[in-house]
Amino acid sequence: MNDTLLEVSGVSKSFDGFKAINNLSIQIAEPELRAVIGPNGAGKTTFMDIITGKTRPDSGHVVWGERNISLLGMSEADIANEGVGRKFQKPTVFEAQTVRQNLAMALKNPRGPLAVLLHRKTPSNAARIEGIAAEIGLTDSLTRIAGELSHGQKQWLEIGMLLAQEPRLLLVDEPAAGMTVEEREKTTDILKRAAKTRAVVVVEHDMEFVRRLDCKVTVLHEGSVLAEGSLDHVTSNPKVIEVYLGR
Ligand code: ADP
User: Fold this and answer.
1) What CATH class has 1-83+171-247?
2) How far is the CA of 90 from the centre of ligand 1 (A)?
3) What is the distance of C-alpha 128 from the center of its chain?
4) Does ligand 1 lie within 6 Å of residue 36's CB atom?
5) Which helix (H) or strand (E) segment is 99 a member of?
6) Please, which pLDDT band fits residue 245 given cuts at 50, 70 and 90?
7) CB proximity list for 16: less than 8 A, separation 6 or greater
8) Shortest CA distance to 176 belongs to which of 157, 200, 201, 151?
9) Where are the domains of the chain?
10) What number is the ipTM of this complex?
11) What's the pLDDT band for 243 if we cut at 50, 70, 90?
12) What superkingdom heads the lineage (predicted)?
């Protein structure tokens, strides 16, 4: 059963009087794969900044988990400890370390005291690293130096490092940017697999990539939800065609 994990309701945020986010309401279930699309300046980055605690909204609510706690006012570190992971556009891995060492370092930094306790009861680090490597398609690259990986492989490694932190919600910013066609295909597989057991929200420009994700789509425009549903549903909406596709 899918339960609501994140409930953003009536959130607004202005910068110097300009409404970047305007009465935005979005619900994300667990598990779920969701694509958030919209033209430049639609508010996608600010949306992620608000969820992760980087930006404080002027009004509205951001409610999390079965305890219905508010993420507003919590520090970025505390929100991360709650299980919100964020993948920025550029890959950030330890270039001089192997893939295995990168994943091991991510495991060594569990996301909270509870995770440390649970850690002792869960499979060994070696088994966990191998499990994550399989999830991100890097089983054959565990001994390779991360700096020698392709752009796509570095992105997958960073996704793996985030998965090692056991997020309940993973926010991913334009993962397909700069990837080859084959890398894009593998990335959709990785994200779909990851979203079977957690919430994954993908902010993306590339419509072909969004089509491959084959998930519910939320279209943002001027800081609000313009349309929501399947990609075919939203792209047949005349308002979306006008503002997003520019026709
Ligand atoms: P997107 O990620 O969809 O391109 P953003 O969330 O980055 O959109 O931006 C939404 C709007 O808010 C844009 O018009 C942008 O210029 C403005 N904006 C975002 N952050 C700031 C900021 N820190 N100061 C001023 N304006 C900002």
Assistant:
1) alpha beta
2) 19
3) 21
4) no
5) helix 99-108
6) low
7) none
8) 151
9) 1-83+171-247, 88-166
10) 0.96
11) confident
12) Bacteria
